Amino acid sequence: MQFLIFALAVGLAAAQTTTPMRGEMSSRKMSFAMKVLTMDPKDMHTCRTDTDCITFPTTPKCSKLFKLCQPTDVPMIQELEGDCTSDAMCTKPMRRCSNGKCAFSGPKACMTKTDCVQGVTGVKFDCMELPKTAPGMRCYLKCTQDSMCQNNMPEEFKTKIGCCGGFCQKKTAC
Predict the structure, then answer these.
(1) Domain count along the chain
(2) Is 86 inside a domain boundary?
(3) Signal sequence: where (predicted)?
(4) Is residue 36 part of a domain?
(5) Domain residue limits at 30
(6) What is the model's pTM?
(7) Fewest beta carbons within 10 Å, which of 93, 98, 118, 157?
């Protein structure tokens, strides 16, 4: 099983910038996100600091949010961005309004369920390990249908992500 792929999250999240259109991404970021979306989890490298990534020349920087090595040209993603009162106010991909802030809702690294997005009406996350998706414990969105996994997602990614085994993940995991 795999969530909207931790990889997708890494790709989307790691590639977010302020854009004029909802879910819009630059071609460089889109290309990286698609690469991550199709990446085999065994090719992902966990980390706690940049030092853990030194031996991986193509991914020498440690993402604090995902605890995975990533390329240096991909911006670090902030967990919380902007004020909100509803999900509609969160215009970047994979963001939901949680406690008045636009919180990243992709498969970030976690230790317990409380590390995951809380207080979002109609959705629940679980902290668990799905090794076919990504190494380590991650926040995965519980689902019953594909549309639950595609909130504020660029169209190009909607064909890659779906509900499988009760969690949002890569459709190839099903």
Answers:
(1) 1
(2) no
(3) 1-15
(4) yes
(5) 6-77+106-173
(6) 0.75
(7) 118
